Amino acid sequence: MNPLKESFHFYTRHIESLLLLSAVIVLPFMIVHNMTINYVSFLAAITGAKVVSSFFNLFLLLLFFMVVQVPFAQYVITDLEGEERPLRRAFRTFAEQGISVFLFGVVYVLAVSIGMVLFVVPGLVLLILFFLTPYVAVVKGKAPWKSLRSAFELGKRHFVPIVGLLILTSVIEWGISMIGLFSVTSITTSFGAVFFTQLLLYVILCPFISVLFTLYTHKWSTEQVRKQEELAWEG
Questions:
Q1: Could you give the CA distance from residue 87 to residue 106 in angstroms, rounded to a whole number?
Q2: Which tens digit of pLDDT belongs to each residue from 195-209?
Q3: Which end of the chain has less neighbouring CB within 10 Å, N or C?
């Protein structure tokens, strides 16, 4: 299975359910993020604390991204396992694990943000090594804290592919965002229209990113388990 190719197929087959999840879960988070960042940026402009504004923006964006991955990952895994009502299962998992993922995200994103602001490279390394934690937690059906070791092993073994996937999704997001921004500004310069367009594009794109990383995590986790079983059998 090619996870990249399969992601496009999965997204198009389940687009209604994925967009519903995104509208119910991702959209509120993004609205809160933008409102909070606008207020913090206003205070930073008055006080001159632009570094604090940049730090908080990075922190909040990564934190929200970690949390909203849970329902999409659960939806994908439920469908792969052939269970019924994956949408209901996704919402239930988000309600049950959302708090634990949020608490993990606070620690993880704080470490990454500090590393990015102060030293850059350590922050990027931490970002990659533990990036798959929410996905691993869903795949293995464990709490994020109990999935750290598996996520670290996958992150270390597939460091370069994860970097490549992050660059790919960032380029796609940037390209779509620029096209949307150009299209809207060619019609109107209204801040509300631009703001709504950016939110809408992220709501549409976020499920695809989640599906992509979930399928890769599932593939790599399956290969890891199979390899461990082979080593145990040989031993």
A1: 26
A2: 788 888 888 999 999
A3: C
